[in-house]
Prior knowledge:
This protein is mainly alpha-helical. The chain has six helices and two strands. It has helices at 6-31, 36-56, 62-67, 81-97, 101-112, 119-124; strands at residues 69-73, 126-130. Strands 1-2 form a two-stranded antiparallel sheet.
Amino acid sequence: MMQAGFWIRLGALLLDALIIAVPLAIISSLLGEGGSGEKQLTNVLSFLYSLLVPVFWRGYTVGKRLCGIRIAKLDGSPPGLGTMLLRNVVAGVVYGLTLGLGLIISIVMVAARDDKRSLHDLIAGTEVVYD
């Protein structure tokens, strides 16, 4: 399987943001009464989307599907819930504790490494590959 590089992964992320995050923000603002409640609802729904959709859709999000890439475990199988928890939650904690430096390192890793794996891929034992 051929690993997906930085630009296609960024494209998938931007598509997910347009297709999923924008409608979620609109819906939560319509349901919310203002303040931080609507932001929290959007954050929870976005987190659940990024955690659960790849589990139930065999490594795809909407953006990844449109770009022809998917998250896979190193043996080629789709990620399970534990894998996605490592990929999203543990990596998110690492990125937060490093005040974003870990995210910058991940971007450089995807751009420069031969296997195109980022920190969250290394933590979870995953890679992003073309179909």
